[in-house]
Design goal:
Blueprint: H1 2-37, E1 59-66, H2 72-83, E2 89-95, H3 102-109, E3 114-119, H4 141-154, E4 161-165, E5 171-172, H5 174-180, E6 186-188, E7 191-192, E8 199-205, E9 208-213, E10 229-232, H6 233-237, H7 253-258, E11 268-269, H8 271-274, E12 279-280, H9 290-297
Parallel strand pairs: 1-2, 1-4, 2-3, 6-11
Antiparallel strand pairs: 4-10, 5-12, 6-10, 7-8, 8-9
Helix pairs in contact: 2-3
The protein binds 2-acetamido-2-deoxy-beta-D-glucopyranose (2 copies).
């Protein structure tokens, strides 16, 4: 009788252990599935797999000039988390600063994106004063040119990709990135809330760009916003001297680059023949920090150790 009870317990123990083990294995598998669904996963690949080979998607090189200001970290967080939703992106972030800042370095390190962190300070003579209206001089010229230089130095005709100049204050739908991925030369699309209009963009007839919907300096060769075009990497690499002109007249910065690369007739209209708005030229309101200044005078300002 005693022996029998012990056997029953033994069988019970073995069966329940097996059940527990099975349940644990199932849990482990579920964990893997969640892991695979994480869009950030693609960034753990080595750099070589992000160079756009025959079996890979062309890489989207997103070039973002940025400068220190109270809402810089908020803007970069928003953009970086949009880019996390796009496969095969390489973010080239270029600071307008004498050196790389830890604020940006930390943000990039935690972003889970494939990235390159560059910096170049805009010469003082070119720099906008805080009081200047934001359209007086083009911002970010030196920084975008620095990124172009990096691409020339570090990428070759074997690398398939497209280059997009994405400022940190715009709003991007993830749709626009897939539109630009297979750019042959220069692809174009409309941009919302820019140029004093609801949108500005190319006019398309029969699948070709025949003009532009714009109301400001309509004689510009390429009257488009920076956010409204992307250039194929191979086209850029085959024009080593092509840069943005730091002395370009207001509104002519985009034309200074595109003029040496394509004709208007060669532009590739995307976003449903330029009828869909998937990027907006939003601007963040400058944060008001009057109370902060007042408290600082009483040495009671916000804790400087807390990074905002
Ligand atoms: C990219 O090019 C720069 C020179 O502009 C060089 O210093 C750097 O080592 C290169 N980086 C890579 C990853 O090849
Ligand atoms: C764009 O227009 C061309 C010519 O009318 C047409 O063949 C093509 O299908 C259009 N593309 C899209 C995405 O609607």
């Amino acid at each position: 009788m005693r022996l029998k009870l012990r056997n029953i317990f033994l069988v019970y123990f073995v069966v329940s252990s097996a059940g527990l083990l099975y349940a644990l294995l199932q849990l482990g598998q579920q964990c893997d599935c969640i892991h695979q669904m994480n869009p950030a996963n693609n960034v753990h690949r080595r750099d070589n797999s992000l160079r756009g080979g025959a079996e890979n998607l062309p890489v989207i090189y997103v070039v973002t000039p940025t400068y220190a200001r109270p809402h810089q970290r908020a803007e970069l967080t928003r953009l970086s988390q949009t880019l996390l939703l796009v496969p095969d992106v390489h973010w080239i972030l270029v600071e307008d600063s004498a050196e790389r800042t830890t604020l940006v370095a930390d943000l990039l390190a935690q972003s889970k994106l494939q990235y390159t962190h560059l910096h170049v300070q805009t010469p003082l003579a070119m720099k906008m004063k805080d009081s200047d209206p934001n359209w007086l001089k083009p911002r970010g010229v030196e920084q975008r040119n620095k990124a172009l230089h990096w691409l020339h130095e570090n990428r070759s005709s074997r690398d398939h990709g497209v280059v997009y100049f994405a400022d940190d204050d715009n709003t991007y739908s993830i749709k626009i990135f897939e539109e630009m991925r297979y750019t042959q030369k220069v692809s174009v699309w409309p941009v919302g809330l820019v140029g004093g209009l609801r949108y500005e963009g190319p006019l398309v007839t029969g699948g070709k760009v025949v003009g532009f919907h714009t109301a400001w300096k309509t004689h510009r060769p390429f009257p488009m916003d920076m956010a409204g075009f992307a250039v194929s990497l191979s086209l850029l690499l085959s024009h080593p001297n092509t840069q943005f002109d730091p002395n370009a007249e207001r509104g002519f910065l985009e034309s200074s680059l595109l003029g040496s690369l394509v004709t208007v007739g060669e532009l590739e209209p995307k976003a449903n023949n330029c009828t869909k708005i998937w990027v907006w030229h939003t601007r963040t309101e400058k944060p008001k920090l009057k109370q902060e200044d007042l408290l600082e005078k009483q040495r009671k300002g916000s804790d400087p150790k807390i990074v905002v």
